[in-house]
Predict the 3D structure of the following.
Amino acid sequence: MHYCGDALVETAIFHEVEGCGMEMEKPSSDSCAIIKKGCCNNEQVSIEGQDELQLQVDTISLEQQVFLTSFIYTYNKLFQGLSKNISSYEDYEPPLVRSQLFKIDESYLI
């Protein structure tokens, strides 16, 4: 993080901050008696990581194992056979016409 005065100017995560251009150059010789303090300040924030990996092993009870296996089995069987085009009306034969419906309902086209 780059601060110019008290204001945050730039934040960088995976690279160095470029700055605001107001940084003071280092003097060419160390013999200067007067050193002016710059207004810019760079801060670096680091987060400590975890050194050891903690593996957590969960045990599954018998009831949970039975539930999981039955769920997976039924879920897989649910979609089997959908790719086949099975029609239920191929073997259907319509009933024979015994009488004309317009005579039964007494509706005539005039």
The radius of gyration is 42 Å.
